[in-house]
Design brief:
- It is found in: Periplasm.
- Keywords: Hydrolase, Metal-binding, Metalloprotease, Periplasm, Protease, Signal, Zinc.
- Its cofactor is Zn(2+).
- The structure is a single chain.
- The protein is an all-alpha fold.
- It is built from 23 helices and three strands.
- The chain has two domains: about 240 residues, no CATH class; about 230 residues, Alpha Horseshoe (Serine Threonine Protein Phosphatase 5, Tetratricopeptide repeat), CATH 1.25.40.10.
- The protein is about 70% helix and about 5% strand.
- A three-stranded mixed sheet has the order 1-3-2, sandwiched between helices.
- A hairpin with a 3-residue loop joins strand 2 and strand 3.
- Helix 20 packs antiparallel against helix 21.
Length: about 500
């Protein structure tokens, strides 16, 4: 049995968290807030998120990010804690899974998106994870598991270090037994929370405008397909076990909501057409073999029903572009745009394919008229800036930087935006501003020590303006506590190297 790096990362971060926090187990009946404060939850969640980014497990795509964030916050608006901060993201994995982490971080695997058949099924999973966060199930689990899980994990790490000169089979056996024991403890505990997350999540789903029965239908279909294929359950069903009782109660809850609570006409109407495009975009951008994906899409198109073809053609167009089959990609995406001339996703996707094909002028001309119509669209502005940067002209770099600057104030935490902004400033000749943006990229992609060094070097440059210097000094002061905490928790380099996690 093989274990992926994300499993090891989660384990190591958990161990670091456990050893770095001077927390005493509370007396029975105490609040979970005594174990982890909301501020601590946010810090640990961000550390996990940035580490996932550093290792390439987050699909950082502006179009997908805009979609999953918008959908997620629609659900949060109808939750019990709409003021809670959340970060929704897509994980580069074909496994059917989703999870919530401390601080409101909710990850959805590309594989889960792909097997979902409707937007309400995806929303059902996300609503369930939102409920886990708002009910603080994660903190309660941490409180209960501290005594039992840490000894298992410590013994497991000790055994891993001891096997540095033995075969890989021995390492795999240790991982299998250790992680298996920890996962079983987690499942046994979280089953008590699953029904509560189901109940609250279904209510969130319904109040947002989705079919409340979608949760039960999706879980039941996954379980049925797993049994029919004779395979083991996907990760989501292992951590969210589906029983007849659970499905039945979910159906009853959905029926009760429909009967007792009237539907509000102004609620969000599910957009299955857009969802189908997004799940194919996630499939393509999370793939390491675009050429194989091209062949898969071509085969699937031959076997498809008419209602499925447009989304499959969109996926094929993206796969062709990633496989460097640029002429075919541009041609196919143009055909889609001809059918829907005002479709923003098609417009941006075609422009991106044109930039990849070396047709940056056509891409910029295509996107420029849309800027006034969609002034707040981050995917559009980033795509337009990328087309300008591809010209390699100084004046176009300045225009790209000016286009992105308003977004930096609103979405400075977005590494894709910061990287594009850095490249624009490099082209424009503003090296100081480019270096500052590169430092932000380093911070948000799990390289905080690099970020700090870059910011300090920036202060040594005599060309830095008074205002930029003040901004950089404030940023250094802001991230210094985070750096110091990481230093205290940093895993020994030898252990990192043994586990394949060396920086």
């Amino acid at each position: 049995m093989k274990f992926s790096k994300p499993s090891l990362i989660a384990l190591l971060l958990f161990l670091n968290l456990a050893h770095a926090t001077d927390i005493s187990l509370p007396e029975m009946g105490s609040s979970a807030a005594e174990v982890l404060t909301p501020e601590e939850e946010d810090r640990y969640g961000r550390q996990m998120f940035y580490e996932y980014r550093r290792l390439g497990y987050v699909v950082d795509d502006p179009i997908l990010a805009d979609y999953i964030e918008t959908l997620g916050y629609r659900l949060v608006a109808h939750s019990e804690r709409p003021e809670q901060n959340f970060t929704f993201f897509i994980v580069r994995s074909n496994d059917i899974n989703a999870f919530a982490a401390p601080g409101g971080f909710v990850g959805v695997n590309a594989g889960l998106m792909y097997v979902a058949q409707r937007e309400d099924e995806l929303a059902a999973v996300m609503g369930h994870e939102v409920a886990h966060v708002t009910q603080r199930h994660l903190v309660r689990a941490y409180e209960k598991m501290q005594k039992s899980t840490i000894p298992i994990a410590l013994a497991m790490l000790g055994a891993l270090v001891a096997t540095r000169n033995t075969s890989g089979d021995a390492t795999e056996a240790i991982l299998a037994s250790g992680i298996g024991a920890m996962q079983q403890q987690q499942i046994n505990f979280t089953r008590h929370n699953e029904f509560e997350a189901d109940r609250i999540g279904i209510g969130i789903l319904y109040r947002t405008g989705f079919a409340p029965v979608a949760a039960a239908d999706f879980f039941k279909r996954l379980a049925n397909e797993t049994r029919a294929n004779g395979e083991g359950p996907p990760p989501y069903l292992r951590t969210h076990p589906v029983t007849i009782t659970r499905v039945s109660e979910a159906h009853e809850r959905a029926e009760k909501l429909v009967t007792e609570e009237p539907v509000v006409a102004s609620l969000y109407k599910p957009d299955d057409a857009k969802f189908n495009l997004m799940k194919h975009r996630a499939r393509v951008l999370s793939s390491d073999a675009p050429s194989i994906l091209v062949a898969d899409y071509q085969r699937e198109l031959k076997q498809s029903k008419p209602a499925q073809r447009e989304a499959l053609e969109y996926g094929l167009g993206l796969a062709l572009s990633r496989a460097a089959m640029h002429a075919e990609a541009v041609s196919l995406l143009k055909k889609l745009l001809d059918r829907h001339p005002d479709h923003l996703t098609y417009l941006i996707s075609l422009a991106q394919a044109e930039v990849a094909a070396g047709q940056h002028q056509a891409a910029a001309a295509r996107l420029l008229p849309l800027l006034n119509d969609y002034p707040d669209s981050a995917p559009l502005k980033i795509a337009y800036a990328e087309a300008l940067i591809a010209s390699t002209k100084t004046d176009q770099g300045r225009l790209a930087a000016e286009t992105l600057r308003p977004l930096i104030n609103k979405r400075g935490w977005d590494p894709t935006l910061q990287l594009t902004f850095a490249r624009a400033n490099e082209l424009a000749g503003d090296e100081d501003r480019a270096l500052e943006a590169h430092a932000e990229v380093a911070l948000y992609t799990g390289r905080p020590f690099d970020a700090m060094e870059q910011l300090k070097r920036l202060l040594d440059r005599p060309s830095v303006s008074y205002y930029q210097r003040a901004r950089v000094e404030a940023r250094i002061a802001e991230i210094t506590p985070y750096i110091l905490e990481l230093e205290r928790r940093r895993i020994h380099p030898e252990t990192e190297q043994r586990l394949g996690l060396a920086r």
